[in-house]
Specification:
alpha+beta; single chain; 27 strands; elongated; 400 residues; five-stranded mixed beta sheet
């Protein structure tokens, strides 16, 4: 029997073998609308509210807490908990076919929200997941009406053909995705904290504005820092080559702001000519510098495209790598020339004076400390990406 005939997803929990059943959502729920609030009504503190825009800007399968508040009006629609909400308006049919569960009671449900209150046979989280990811997503996209702004009504939701398993299997699926999403949220919070630590470290370990020395220094370092123009700290490498055996690094290969490659460049097949670099050189993307395309290299290769290849001159390479990430350097690098294709201006950057430690040991200490933070960031990013990939795979395989 084929998968379509059996009406069962590719992946299921052990012990569940029955076919999933198709029902009209109209038979399984009650439908209502949120009340008319907009962004103009928001205040710093007050009664918690969910506006429809949250499902686009801060989408969560389960909404437990919000950071938006209003003064409560008469006849407001207040959640009882476990409602499923679907935006009634959106920019595209793709956007509008999504749903979230309101976990808690006591939240105002704003205008342009379709509210689904379920009967006992359906788990709210399961419904939100299948509307956002199953066949129902395609069905709602077809029902969405409009061009510049599309609309989805409760009358459209009532006609949705919901394909679902037993209540017990729904609970299992819901618990799995809640656990996954809690883990994703936890890693996102950890990543955000370590990224904030790096930002603070860059501001503290390097001089700011007109300062000649930083606010924070490592123990046993007290000598004054020296002033040097940037072109005294680095040599800009321009030697071009088309050597076949060296890996190529192109602009799009570098993840913005992370100093990491998004692919194995050794496996790329390319014979494009470019500038040869060696371990310890720094690639800095001069095109649209606000994209923060930089890379600290630990291999020999060829940079193809709009890069400066910076080779430190009598200064620790790892220190220079983090110097180019400081607010002062980023400000100078973003004083670009050109409009459609803005590029950093080497004359401006090279003539800018920076403060650096006299001692190589202090330079190295700063660089190694920040490198450890970068490594921790990369570790959390990998874990987060793996969890997101796992969730995406389950969404594809556990719903019809």
């Amino acid at each position: 029997m084929s998968k379509e005939e059996k009406r069962a997803p590719e992946v299921r929990f052990e012990g569940f073998n029955d076919d999933w059943k198709q029902r009209k959502l109209d038979k399984l729920a009650y439908f209502s609308k949120g009340s008319g609030y907009s962004k103009k009504d928001l205040i710093p503190y007050g009664y918690p509210i969910i506006l429809y825009g949250r499902l686009y800007t801060k989408y969560e399968t389960v909404i437990q807490n919000v950071d938006t508040y209003v003064n409560k009006k008469e006849k407001s629609i207040i959640s009882n908990g476990n409602e499923v909400i679907v935006p009634a308006s959106g920019e595209s049919a793709e956007d509008i076919s999504r749903a979230s569960v309101v976990a808690n009671s006591g939240m105002i449900l704003g205008g342009d929200l379709n509210i689904i209150t379920l009967k006992e046979k359906i788990e709210p989280v399961f419904l939100a997941l299948t509307i956002s990811n199953g066949k129902q997503k395609k069905e709602l996209r077809k029902r969405a009406q409009g061009k510049s702004v599309v609309h989805l009504h409760n009358s459209d939701l009532k006609e949705v053909n919901l394909i679902c398993p037993s209540k017990e299997e729904q609970k299992k699926i819901s618990e799995l995705f809640r656990t996954l999403e809690n883990s994703i949220t936890l890693h996102q919070e950890k990543l955000s904290k370590i990224q904030s630590l790096k930002k603070a470290a860059l501001q503290s370990l390097f001089p700011q504005k007109n300062e000649k020395e930083p606010k924070v220094r490592f123990a046993n370092f007290s000598s004054s820092w020296k002033q040097r123009k940037f072109d005294e700290l680095v040599n800009r490498i321009n030697k071009r080559t088309d050597e076949v055996d060296l890996p190529r690094v192109e602009f799009e290969d570098i993840i913005s702001g992370q100093g990491q490659l998004n692919k194995d460049v050794y496996e790329k097949q390319s014979d494009k000519a470019g500038i040869e670099f060696k371990p310890g050189d720094i690639l800095f993307g001069k095109l649209r510098p606000y994209l923060k395309k930089w890379l600290y290299t630990n291999f020999k290769g060829i940079a193809v495209g709009d890069f400066w290849i910076l080779r430190p001159n009598e200064v620790e390479s790892i220190f220079i790598y983090f110097l180019i990430q400081t607010p002062k350097y980023q400000f100078i690098a973003n004083l670009t020339s050109g409009t459609k294709m803005p590029r950093s201006d080497w004359k401006t950057v090279s003539n800018t004076t920076f403060s650096i430690p006299y001692q190589y040991k202090e330079q190295n200490k700063i660089g190694i400390y920040l490198k450890k933070i970068d490594d921790t960031i990369a570790l959390h990013q990998i874990k987060l990406q793996n969890l997101q990939t796992l969730k995406k795979s389950f969404l594809q395989k556990m719903f019809i």
